[in-house]
Amino acid sequence: MANVKFFKLLGVMLALMLIIWGIAPFLRHQLITNDIMATAIILVLIAVAYLIILFNPGWTKAVFFFEGIVIGISGYMLLAYPYNLELAFVGVIIILIAILAYLQKLPRGILKWFYR
To answer: What is the pLDDT of residues 66-110, one digit of tens each?
Structure first.
């Protein structure tokens, strides 16, 4: 039977893998484009947010709100026309979910992920 420490270790490994994927183009001295920068920013911040939520579950709503802002702004500012609007839209949806979680207006099945 797996215990909590094992799942936390798997979570840390996942976060480290996301960080490595995010910085790999910079380490390989690849041509850095706006797409690579946006992907790196999003992957590294998702990994950092996952680590924060893993070790401090009370911060889930705040980290989710911040992730929505970062995904929306970095996607809108760094990507080309059709993709920038899509990522801005995804960021707004994440922000709305975080605000609804703060107000406890989401269904109970979804709220259980924000209040542990």
So the answer is: 888 888 888 888 878 888 898 889 999 999 999 998 998 988 888
CA distances from 19 to 14, 16, 106 (A): 9, 5, 31
Q: Is the dihedral of CA 82, 73, 69, 31 positive or negative?
A: positive
* Other residues' Cβ atoms within 10 Å of the Cβ of residue 43: 18
User: What tokens appear for 30 in the block?
Assistant: 């690849």
What are the boundaries of each domain within the chain?
Answer: 4-111
What's the maximum distance between 2 C-alpha atoms anywhere in the chain?
A: 49
Q: The tokens of 31 are what?
A: 């041509």
